[in-house]
Request: fold
Amino acid sequence: MPSISPAAVGRRIAYYRRIARPKMTQQQLADRANVALGTIRKIERGERGVTDDTLDSIAAALGVDPSRLVADREHVSTRIRDALPALSASIATYDMPDDGPVRSLAELRTSVARTTAWRLSAQYLQIAREVPDLLAELSRATASAPLLEAQEMAGLLVTAYRSADAVAYKYQARDLSARLVELMRWTAPGAQDPLLAAAVGYVRTETFFAARAHTAGLHALEQAIDACPPASGPPAIAARGALHMRAAVIAGRACQGDTADKHLKEARALGDRVREGVYQGTAFGPDSVRIHEVSVAVSLGDGHVQRAFDVAREWTPPATLPAERRSGFWIELARAQLWGGRGDDAFESLKVARRIAPQHTREHPWVREDAATLRRLKRADSETLTNFAEWCHAD
Reply:
């Protein structure tokens, strides 16, 4: 890792160690990362460099993404893209898995839950490093699972596919993303869980967004809503509510304002019936619905940006929401602010999004477009804005 300053990495590691909850000593970090104490001390003092493997182990011990520990974010993005072929290879044999070890069901549950936590916090490098082997193992486990475990194994495999898809979709590997979505659809019936099927319908919308087939995507979501179980308890309420949120956004993209408002109204009513939380891997509740109000306003275009300003004036996403969703709010708000002639505010919103979820923000196409526009308008300090634009590869 010659392009990464050892001193800068050391300072970041020391910082995240000190702010960990509970606070972590160097010895505790060394133990959790399986790295010698002397090595940790030298790294923090900037006296030695850090290999990718060591950096990943330290990041895992600290509970942060490796991108938080380095200034060279291009290096992290390159590592993620370099991992995509391994991901493709791991799903090529989905129906004829190779021989290999299979951990216990409890251990697999833990590993899959970890990938979901990484997805929600936009830690894509962690997913890219671990999910190819995990998918291969889950395919083996599913093929050989006894009848009593087969349904749960299918559900775990769908959930792991979803985490893998998050990486593929965010890093513009759209063919790979579409393949993963189809594998989710192919596997989900084996779980015999209608709420999981609803979650797959939610994720499938990515393929319609990517193809700009908004009307078809809206139709697919409305079919998923019709097939979703009645809203008789929090999980089912959240499943239906998430589908309505998604339908509202894609209806806005299809320039169907009345339909977008109808779905947003349904989502709001359902959101008021549950606590904000993560259900079937999707955040849903009153706060998520507010974020989607901004998304709908942006989807509908210039004439509706005041709705986004109205939400943002009275409310901002709490820190308890998943990082990916919070950063998405600020990215959407930045676009509304840019359209509303508030360039300085837009740039501040983009910087907030970067602080919350740097990988998600850096790879978001709107961030690049808006940073490029702001740079042309020269609405902020030129050096700071230039650095930001170069960071996200804005044209």
